[in-house]
Amino acid sequence: MAKRAGFATRLGAIAAAVGSAVGLGNIWRFPYEAGANGGGAFILVYIGCIIVMGIPVILSEFIIGRSTHSNMKSALRQLSPGKKYYLFTYLCILGSFVVIGFYSVVCGWIIEYLYQAALGNLHGHTPQEYEAIFMGLVSNPWRCVGWTVIFLILNFLVMSRGIHKGIERVASIMMPLLFVILIVFCVNSLLLPGASKGLEFLFYPDFSELTMRGVLDAFGQAFLSLSIGISCLVTYGSYFKDDTSLSMDAATVGVLDTLVAILSGVMIFPAVFSFGLEPTAGPRLIFEVLPSIFQQMTGGYIWALLFFLLVFFASLTSTISLSEIPITFLIEEHKLSRRVAILWTALLSLILAVLAALSFNVLDDVVLFGKSIFDAMDYAASNIFMLIGGLFTAVYVGWILDRKVVHDQLTNGGRLKATVVEPYLIFCLRYVAPVSIIFIFLYLTGII
Ligand code: PHE
């Protein structure tokens, strides 16, 4: 087999994994999901899910990837020879395309906002006018599709530059910067009059507001945000060096990702309450709230530009990792050249993304399972594909995979200690994750 590319440094590898995890899921989706599901109680369930399912599944994906240094299909073949577990890879690939489909549309909106911020058009309006600006964008098929296509082109251009040059470099610079700027916005938001109401909404757990659907949404949100369940982190883990501590890396990804999500909530909700907006506004929430925050700040023009630029990079590091799933698969399993693999992946992504973009305008009467195409993709990606994928990964590593492989990967062949981590991991994978995920599915399908 040809020598595979890998991440050059440990920091670069973590930055790329954090770059995959931190994206629109944290900044755009987390605040509106929390807003729609009552705030505090949703966040508690979310954090619980990260600790007992999210981080263990990240670690499992790293174990599968690094123990074999190959893509999901060949990894499962090597780890379980003669068994059919590798078929699960196809579900991962399908899942990754569904995520790319709706995700690229939102990335397109981000570029449009970046463009509008550069023109100075995000200034001097009322919160209600910002709503009209956003609706104007999504209801226009040319603009909505156009920006989505531009985003996809940029994404696949970066992909064509390969692993270190593209992914690692972009992620190592942009991620720390994004973190700093989020803190600046949080401070600004907290200084707005009436900010405390937003904090109360975000942190006071009112369980009467949380439904079982909300719990499923919290699980789905956690899985989407951590990039787990569709083998993305198997692919990244396969590029890791053999001397990194996988448990430390998994915990770092989980903690930083959660921090960015919570910071996004702290940035958004005080402003939502201060400007008298609806926390339940759904996908358009941040697009209405953020411009109002920017215009309260000195140098708002520059802040707006900087913010959308960083969110753009955060989404790019996520879509890069998403597209890497089918690309690595096509190269290694179907022996395509990187260029051809990129072209096929780009074409399929484009079709799905255009359908999702059109569902806000010309295709707005198309209904799939009671939802628009965009909403159906968004829902299916996190609440179905990624949760089922997470369940498979947990059961596979917890029950099926040879324990020696797990032990070897956790201890780097006996060089590190895993006295607490290993039993914790196995317990979560064997019992907590499968029982919770199966329970919620059975409950929601009305079986229990
Ligand atoms: N985790 C990314 C986000 O929060 C989305 C993503 C999902 C990326 C799956 C890669 C794989 O935005």
Produce the secondary structure layout:
Layout: H1 10-21, H2 24-36, H3 40-68, H4 72-79, H5 88-119, H6 127-138, H7 141-160, H8 163-190, H9 195-203, H10 212-225, H11 232-238, H12 246-274, H13 285-296, H14 300-334, H15 338-358, H16 373-400, H17 403-411, H18 421-444
Helix pairs in contact: 1-8, 1-12, 1-14, 2-10, 2-12, 3-4, 3-9, 3-10, 3-11, 3-12, 3-16, 3-17, 3-18, 5-7, 5-14, 5-15, 5-16, 6-13, 7-14, 7-15, 8-12, 8-14, 9-12, 10-16, 10-18, 11-14, 13-14, 14-15, 16-18
Reported for the largest beta sheet, the result is: none
Strand content: under 5%
Q: Quick one: overall form? A: globular
**Name of the CATH first level:** Mainly Alpha
Average pLDDT, rounded to a whole number, is 92
At CATH level 3, the topology is: Hydantoin permease
Poorly predicted runs of 5 or more residues: none
Q: Number of helical segments? A: 18
Structural class given helices, strands, pairing?
Answer: mainly alpha
| Total beta strands | 0
Listing every helix as H and every strand as E from the N terminus to the C terminus, the arrangement reads HHHHHHHHHHHHHHHHHH
Level-2 CATH architecture: Orthogonal Bundle
Number of domains: 1
- Full CATH superfamily name: Hydantoin permease
| Bound ligands, each once | phenylalanine
Helix content, binned percent: over 70%
